[in-house]
Amino acid sequence: GAVVSQHPSWVICKSGTSVKIECRSLDFQATTMFWYRQFPKQSLMLMATSNEGSKATYEQGVEKDKFLINHASLTLSTLTVTSAHPEDSSFYICSAQGTSGSEETQYFGPGTRLLVL
Amino acid sequence: DAKTTQPPSMDCAEGRAANLPCNHSTISGNEYVYWYRQIHSQGPQYIIHGLKNNETNEMASLIITEDRKSSTLILPHATLRDTAVYYCIASKAAGNKLTFGGGTRVLVKP
User: Fold this and answer.
1) pLDDT tens, B48-63?
2) Residues of chain A positioned with their CB less than 8 A from the CB of B4
3) What SS3 string covers B38-95?
């Protein structure tokens, strides 16, 4: 139980294009989902927190107009990187927190590696 | 969230117990201690969490000191597949964000 999936697992795009990443909780309903970013040899950095049906809360320094987050259902959240640039190349990881087993635990997806050329 | 301090790296022998320490001296009464690990190029994997009492599951044991200022994650029989970065995080439950520090890079050697 408590499985979180992400799609795609990796993506290469041209500079200036937009990329959408999906995060799904497969066997539980996620009241809260989180989006993290990880650069090489660094730790995970939280980008934003989203609750189903409401606007996401972004961390300081994260541009909400560039990183669009939608949490339209209890099992799906999407992150859209708009007008991607090479500096947006990173490992994007989502996590979901719900009521599977324990509502105290966040479960992470496998991550999406984005390369912007 | 309370800050946690972990050694940057440690080696352990395959088949032996691995004891990973974590200091969280400013932890508040309603903050849990969570442990996750991240194997190279994957998302973090939940291991275990606890509030006051020691906890054990199929992956590991968590020993929390009585004053809650430190804890130890124990992998009872380390295997090569346990090589990963282990993160100790103090956080309130139910929807609170997790703040990842540098973690401990554990290398299990044959």
Assistant:
1) 999 999 999 999 999 9
2) none
3) ECCCCCCEEEEEECCCCEECCCCEEEECCCCCEEEEEECCCCHHHCEEEEEEEEECCC
